[in-house]
Design goal:
The structure holds two protein chains of two kinds.
Chain A lengths: L6 H23 L2 H17 L10 H27 L8 H12 L1 H8 L2 H12 L4 H8 L3 H25 L1
Helix pairs in contact in A: 1-2, 1-3, 2-3, 3-7, 4-5, 5-8, 6-7, 6-8, 7-8
Chain B lengths: L4 H8 L5 H13 L1 H20 L10 H7 L4 H4 L2 E2 L1 H10 L10 H15 L14 E3 L5 E3 L1 H9 L11 E8 L5 E7 L5 E8 L2 E9 L18 H10 L7 H9 L8
Antiparallel strand pairs in B: 1-7, 2-3, 4-5, 5-6, 6-7
Classes of the chains: A mainly alpha, B alpha+beta.
């Protein structure tokens, strides 16, 4: 890689990564609007911390990690807000219903949505985004053994969900 | 020799070193079950990849492209920073009429600004902007928005109201504040606080109108993050409950605070 790389080319690299960042964020958040918000936050964070990106590291892994951390922050602050808004109005969690409706149409997506979060992240990074195990483990901040066992369980669950759903239709 | 399923999975994912790969390959030759299992791992990988490949060719939202290119978030975001919005309004004020009272020209500018920043208020009422620029440079609610802020109770509104009120609370400033959402495709939302006899809008944001996402909204947490942040920053204590909201309305949103 050219070491005299200008920031402009990093911007363009991030632009090129956008489709995958969005896709990963959607798998994390399971909501396209949240996903775009999280990607936007992650881009802004990444650009202010470009000095922390080691040029020999993969930009995609680094960005996936920032996206994931942004989502974790968002979930934390949402938990605080939920406390804040309890009682203000009974929360109707319509999201779950519309998710179920979509599930009937999109079997792989619906099976993914049913995976526990840790398995969904592992499957998403390795099978969908194509990261090597080592990179995916790094994004998730876990040892590689943890990554492979989450991935194995996630795959098993997907296979079971896709198999049985195929029969029941 | 037995080979774990995780090893077969790693083989299918191209993660094994040469020695381990050779061991799996020779096991595959001698055991059709192992071969079948590897094929299943590969098939699942392909199936999952294929199911998510269409997303890569979707059009990208402008705000993300702008953010990636490092444009200031004022242009990139769908969130309106009111201070910057006001500054932009003043910068673009017609120089030809410097003596005109500011609010007069600014009122019209407020309308164009709101369209300009894409808040989408005009989706809601083409003929009447729900906001005007007040004398002190504040964005002030008017018309149906102002009426809803003054009179509508969160507990008694119908689904078809043009304005929805979500949360009411007493701010640290001593003013009462309420979050609102306007109906319409762009469903802008905001936070307004009662100051004197006006509802001054403190924050505005737009839910972009991507298909069906409003169905993911829940009552409180469905407000855009920027609005919730404004609430979090301003609220003193807890949001008003039903009785508190009604009492505050009946007092004309005048707080007892000094």
């Amino acid at each position: 890689m050219n070491t005299s790389e200008t920031p402009q080319t990093v911007h363009e690299q991030i632009v090129a990564l956008l489709p995958r960042l969005r896709r990963f964020a959607r798998n994390l958040t399971r909501n396209p609007h949240d996903a775009d918000d999280v990607v936007q936050i992650a881009i802004e964070r990444a650009l202010t911390r470009l000095d922390q990106w080691h040029r020999d590291a993969r930009l995609d892994s680094w960005m996936f990690k920032i996206v994931r951390n942004a989502w974790i922050d968002e979930l934390r602050s949402r938990a605080r807000r939920d406390k804040l808004f309890v009682g203000a109005e009974a929360g109707e969690h319509i999201g779950a219903d519309s998710m179920a409706r979509e599930a009937d149409l999109l079997s792989v997506q619906s099976a993914m949505a049913r995976l526990p979060e840790d398995q969904r992240e592992a499957v998403s990074l390795v099978l969908i985004e194509g990261l090597p195990y080592r990179e995916a483990a790094e994004v998730l901040d876990v040892p590689i053994g943890t990554l492979t066992s989450r991935l194995a369980r996630g795959r098993e669950a997907l296979q079971a969900l896709l198999g049985t759903e195929g029969e029941s239709l | 020799m037995t080979i774990s399923d995780e090893t077969l999975m790693a083989y299918a994912d191209g993660e094994l070193d040469a020695a381990a790969r050779a061991a799996v390959e020779s096991a595959m030759l001698s055991d059709p079950q192992i071969e079948k299992r590897v094929a299943q791992h590969r098939a699942l990988r392909l199936k999952v990849q294929a199911a998510y490949s269409a997303e890569l060719s979707e059009a990208l939202p402008e705000r993300l492209l702008m953010a990636a290119r490092g444009a200031p978030s004022r242009q990139a975001g769908n969130v309106v920073n009111l201070q910057e919005a006001r500054a932009a309004m003043e910068r673009s004020a017609p120089r030809a009429a410097p003596r005109r009272p500011q609010w007069q020209s600014a009122g019209a500018l407020a309308a164009s600004l709101i369209v300009g920043v894409g808040v989408g208020f005009f989706m809601w009422g083409r003929s009447e902007s729900p906001l005007v620029l007040g004398p002190g440079g504040a964005l002030v609610a008017r018309g149906p928005l102002a009426r809803a802020l003054s009179g509508q109770l969160a507990s008694e509104q119908s689904q078809s109201s043009a304005v929805r009120i979500e949360v009411s609370f007493l701010a640290k400033s001593g003013d009462y504040c309420r979050t609102f959402s306007l109906s319409g495709e762009a469903s802008p939302s905001g936070l307004a606080c009662r100051h004197g006899d006006q509802w001054q809008v403190q924050a505005l944001a737009r839910e972009s109108a991507v298909g069906g996402e409003s169905e993911y909204r829940t009552a409180g947490s469905g407000l855009p993050a920027s609005i919730l942040k404004s609430v979090e920053g301003q609220i003193a204590g807890e949001p008003l409950d039903q009785a508190g909201e009604k009492a505050a309305r009946d007092r004309g949103w005048k707080s007892n605070a000094p």
